[in-house]
Amino acid sequence: MIFPFLNGILDFRRAPVTWLLVLMNLTVFVFSSGISGGTEKKFTEMIYEDEFLITQGRLYAEFLASDDGRNLSGRSELVQQLVAGAREGDNRRAKNLGYMATRDQDFFVWMEMVELKGDQVAVEIWREGWKELHQLKERHPSFLLGLGSERMQLPQWISYMFAHGSMVHFLGNMLFLLIFGCMLEPLLGGLVLLLIYLAAGLGGGLLYVLVDGPSLSPLVGASGAISGLVGLFCVLYWSQPVRYIYWLFLPVKGYLGFVYLPAWVVLFIWLVSDLAGIWSGVKELGGVAYTAHLGGQLVGLAFGLAILLLRRSFQVEGVQSKLAR
Amino acid sequence: MAMPMDRLGSVIVDLFIVLTPAVTLFSAPLQRLVLESFLLGFSEMIWLSRAGQWLMGVAILVVYQTIFWRVFGATLGQMFFGLRVVDLHSGARLSGPAALLRSLIWNAQWIFFLGLTFLTVFSHQFRRSWHDRLADSQVLTLRQRAAAKPSQRDALVIQGFLAGLAYLLAVIVVYQLLAAAHSFRHGVSGGNSGVSRKDCEAVDRAVADWPESTRRLEVAMALFAAGSIESECLEPELELARFERRFEGLDYLALAFLHADSQRRSDAYLKAVCSQDPDSFACSQAQIIRKLATTQPLSEERPYSKDSKPPSLRSADSSAPAYYRLWALRQAMKEEDPKRALELIGSLESKASLRTFLSVEQVKAWWALGQRERARGRAEILAPVMSSVDGLDMASFICGEDIEFSCQRRDSSLCQWSFDWVSRQSTAAQLPFIDRLALLWVRDSDCRAQLGQGEPEWMSLSQQESLLPEEAKTLLRLSRYQAEGNELKAQIILQELVEGEDFGLDYRLRAFKGKVQGSRSTMDMAQTIEFWRKLQLGHQSHYLGQVLFEQAIELGDYSLASEIGESLEQRLVEERDFQRSMVVVSWHQGQKKVARQWLDRWQHQGSSEAVAPSRLPASDSPKSQNFEKSWRAVLRQLGAR
């Protein structure tokens, strides 16, 4: 077990903006848990009912295969095979395709216009279900605040950073925000930090929308913005030692202690895990938005480099000496 | 020499901190492959990809270890703990090939022996494990704290343990080889295809019986109506993933059967049948099904025009599709119209795939018409060549009918052939058969009684115990099961009796008692406990409670006994039996004071003199041996003289 040794850095007076951000996230989280309680459960029940998913998958396969396969040609090999299987009656593939359908805006637009034959009853039941889901969504905080293909105006680009999907998501992000924010704010000042935070969030969202495509299931979370802080931190502190506390199984003498590692190690690990996440995932299924992390990180790195260059060119008190204090 | 703990620590640092990023990164594509294979349902690929991931991890580890041992003499983890790997003889860093060898052996120990052979570090005098020995290396520490040689005892223990493991491993490997050879020879059916694939082949075979123009779905529906296939087999015929074809009424009817478990969906489908094809046979069937399912009058829904109506059941002549005629046949038999049934059977006889079903119905129809000899003759030929369930159906039907008939004819000969057949099947320990056997016995003794050939067993039972005939007959079945040693069935009958509302209360209480006392564990008693809790009958409830209470003590479940005792306390507090039990129960619950109180109460109960605890007063009846033993033990513990 290894962990950064946080002695004394979490002081509120040293990093007011960071704590403010945490507070804002907390407020949003508490409010949305209150609102979403019942709807969350119903939503999950409905959306994971077998028959509903299978029908949805079949319809999605129909959509993808329509227009002489125009909709299908741009898709990945996986999706093409799923479609082929679903159309031949493989229910398992149809169901998995159904999961993927929930993210595709074009599909639902198509469903509103198209006239289908075949099992009309199933289609009707699906349509009713879908309408109900849509109404539930209108009331669910993640959908209101998050960045999804139906809602992509400026407010959503900022509000998405403050909404979180689950308690674990929220706590994890807040932990990292505190660690990195509290180390950076005394160095840069609250305003600069805030600006970089928001910029990184925007960058993360942008990369996500460009690469993974905006999906009907919205993007939520502060991970992009926080990745930006991580990137920034690692550039500014590049070879500075950061103190960690470690222990092996149990905190016993000889196997418990402090170790100093240079800051770039964190960047390396973050980068590697994001890349591994992107490469090991199936884009169409969603899950953790590693591209958003990456986007945020790039923004943070860019800002870090910019600051270093600025300091050097203006011969202002260097980062190093400020750190030495 | 290096401390083993340090070496372990270095491994942990290496694996979990240093290498994890690299491994996750390089195995990411394989991870994706696992996910994709899962989505596509390629189960073999999943295993292969996972294996690939493992191999990738091992490969990375080997490269890492080899390079670091060669160049630095230690991996990063080992550097952190101040260890160095050196050549045994020269004390220098390992050469390239040696490092590679060491790494390969190191990994092999994990893969093949789960790392257990690393324990030799604790037994070998220089703390060298296999990878050290084969690569001529040694691990040293740069720190102050070093390890000494292991003691003789440690060494022997570890060596013995490993030797034992080696034998165990050898045994397991040999066993697996034999098992694999065995299954290979006897051709185990691999394959994870769904059950339905195989069973639905009947549809393929049956298609030959029908004219070319018939839809496959129609054939499947006919087989479904005859009970030859399950509803799942209708699905492939419907092509549900295609939306180009206009669905007919028949399609929706099939879908209604397919979704029979969802009220909402099946109803929606049945409605759709008539909106699609209002004049069809399918619509007629759908409407009747809906009428049977609900109590709504048919006239409420009139999706068809006023001038035309869907055909009624009556019109199921040779122009009607086969599935419709089969369904009409079933209805005819239900409504006890054997003539009609035979007509319909006649019109379907040409279909080889329906023969079994039709034959059984034919036998039943003949019997119903009074053509008994004909029916019995046919049944005798058919029963042995049918599947067991169909054959049993037929045989027990005939036998039961035979008994009735011969009774009315004052001729009590049991239908020997079918009775033998049923008994033979039941000795193959198939439960539903045993049930039939018992029922046949009951009908037989009934019959004999009617013919004055002695009283039926149930009658005397009924008189002795003042039971109703139904109750007595059930009890007779119960005694048959118990005589045959069929515990399971006996318990089921007892449970039916306990819960069955049709039987007299006294009878149920007796059954309850029997069930409780026959229980070997409180799990067996669980259902009866439920029954007791639901029963709110005043003194009856107490009677039952007492039975449960005693049995719980007998079985040693004192917490259950305590719980029941609490609810009985008010009523039974002055009963000596109960008081004695409560002494034992509260003692076992750790409530010494309470136990003492109960003991005092018992000692002074109902007499002017106190009774010595070790002596049972004459008014008390001794209980079971188990209980008396506990009683004496508790008395000793309480320090009572």
Q: What would the keywords be for this entry?
A:
heterodimer; A: 325 residues; mainly alpha; Rhomboid-like fold; 2 domains; three-stranded antiparallel beta sheet; 14 helices; 5% strand; elongated; B: 641 residues; two-stranded antiparallel sheet; 31 helices; 67% helix; flat
What is the straight-line distance between the termini of chain A?
30 Å
**Highest-level CATH class of the largest domain in chain A:** Mainly Alpha
CATH architecture of the largest domain in chain A: Up-down Bundle
Strand content of chain B: under 5%
Largest sheet of chain A: 3 strands, antiparallel
Give the name of the CATH superfamily of the largest domain in chain A. Answer: Rhomboid-like
Would you count the extended β strands of chain A for me?
A: 3
> Number of helical segments of chain B?
31
Biggest interface and residues each: A-B, 46 and 42 residues
Mean pLDDT of chain B: 77
TL;DR?
Chain A has 325 residues and is mainly alpha-helical. In chain A, 69% of the residues lie in helices and 5% in strands.
Write the layout of secondary structure elements.
The complex is a heterodimer of chains A (325) and B (641).
Chain A: E1 2-4, H1 16-47, H2 50-73, H3 77-87, H4 91-101, H5 105-113, H6 120-139, H7 141-145, H8 154-159, H9 167-188, H10 190-211, H11 223-236, E2 241-247, E3 256-262, H12 264-280, H13 290-314, H14 319-324
Antiparallel strand pairs in A: 1-2, 2-3
Helix pairs in contact in A: 1-6, 1-9, 2-3, 2-4, 2-6, 3-4, 9-10, 9-11, 10-11, 10-13, 11-12, 11-13, 12-13
Chain B: H1 4-26, H2 28-40, H3 43-71, H4 76-80, E1 83-87, H5 96-113, H6 130-135, E2 137-141, H7 152-185, H8 195-199, H9 201-206, H10 216-225, H11 235-238, H12 249-258, H13 263-276, H14 281-293, H15 322-334, H16 338-348, H17 355-369, H18 372-382, H19 388-408, H20 416-427, H21 431-450, H22 457-464, H23 469-484, H24 487-499, H25 505-518, H26 522-534, H27 539-554, H28 558-572, H29 576-588, H30 592-604, H31 625-637
Antiparallel strand pairs in B: 1-2
